[in-house]
Amino acid sequence: MAVSSLIHSLLLVFTGLSAGYLLQRIRPADYRRVRQRIQVFSLVFLSPFTIISTVWIAPWRHWEMFSLPLIGVTALMLGSFSALFLGRRMGMSREQQGVYFVCGGFSNLGSLGGLISYMLLGEGGYALVPFYSLFERFWYFLAGFPMAKSVSPTCAGTGKRLSVKQILLDPFVSVTLASTLAGMALNLTLPRPPVLGRINGVLIPVSSFVLMVSIGLAMKFGPMRSHLKAGLVMGGIKGLLLPLYGLTVGLLFGLGHVAEGLPLRLVLIECAMPVGFTALVPPTMYDLDLDLANTCWFLTTMGLVFVVPLLGLILPLL
To answer: pLDDT digit string (tens) for 36-59?
Structure first.
């Protein structure tokens, strides 16, 4: 595993986050609309091209590949319920348990997982990311958000779960799904023009960088000291428990024997990703412990400094 790829992936992540954070500190303002525009630009305009052109060359002809979405969503479920169990053991309040449940089951599979998969595995690894995360938002909206609302002191019992139809109509979900299906159709019918690989070499890092900037624009650091233990335990869930689960289940599904082990390596990377920034949305919406969510997000994201080099050592062995 090239050391330069490890360094580039970490630099891109932390440079983007730092740029967004420094901008909001130097010029304080409401960047909500700016963040939304950046995210729409990246997820609706840049991502479809990169998804189609990478899925175009993915090894879809192996039936084992279709275990990826199942592994992806069950890893998120394991993260949520493990966090809920451990939160109770740590004596968290009911409201904090709801936040911990969300943090455990919300992972940064796209912007960070996609970037690191591309840096460490190339286009082939990046091509599998949208398929692995196919059911991600279903878990978020059918379980995570309702759980947070159910423990909210101000919103409990006031809302309903989104229907499957409503989730599918979410532009981020529908665009990703349509792009994946289009790429699979092209994969089965036409060879991909070589120039698309060079274009992706620019667009994938750029797309991830601008998403990191948008996240940095919203970074807030409340008092983290009181939640340090919870943040470190969450780091254990994300950095140890879930990767072990993904590796075990991936081996059971035979992913180590498909495409020279590429899908198994992708599963390990995605299972090791930190708490997703989306985990900060339910605590904000439902008046829960945002400092707890911030701590879990920040510590697990900073933990990439250790996780990514460790992945670099393990992946060549698979």
So the answer is: 788 778 777 887 888 888 788 776
Q: Which residues pair with 275 in a beta bridge?
A: 107
Share of the chain above pLDDT 70, in %: 90
Tokens of residue 238, six digits = 């994300």
Q: Predicted confidence band at 237 (pLDDT cuts at 50, 70, 90)?
A: very high
CA–CA separation, 118 and 127 (whole Å): 9
* H or E, element range at 44: none
CB atoms within 10 A of CB 21: 18
Average of pLDDT values for 103-111? Answer: 90
Q: Using an 8 Å Cβ cutoff, are 280 and 297 in contact?
A: yes
Angle separating helix axes 228-236 and 68-89, nearest 10 degrees: 150
Q: In 10 A of CB 199, how many CB atoms?
A: 13
160: left (phi over 0), alpha (psi -120 to 50) or beta: beta
Round to whole Å and give the CA distance between 316 and 300: 24
d(CA 123, CA 127): 6
For the domain spanning 3-305, the CATH number is: 1.20.1530
Residues 6+ apart with CB under 8 A from 240: none
Q: Can you tell me whether residue 199 is helix, strand or coil?
A: helix
Whole-number Å distance between alpha carbons of 197 and 62 = 23
The confidence score (pLDDT) of residue 70 equals: 95
The model's pLDDT over 131-185, given as tens digits with 9 standing for 90+, comes to 898 888 889 888 888 888 888 777 654 445 556 666 666 666 677 778 888 888 8
CA distance 107 to 116: 14
Provide the residue ranges of all domains of the chain, joining segments of one domain with +: 3-305
What's the N-to-C CA distance of the chain in angstroms? 12
> Residue 154 phi/psi, 5° resolution?
-110, -20
Contacts of 247 (CB under 8 A, 6+ apart): 264, 267, 268, 271
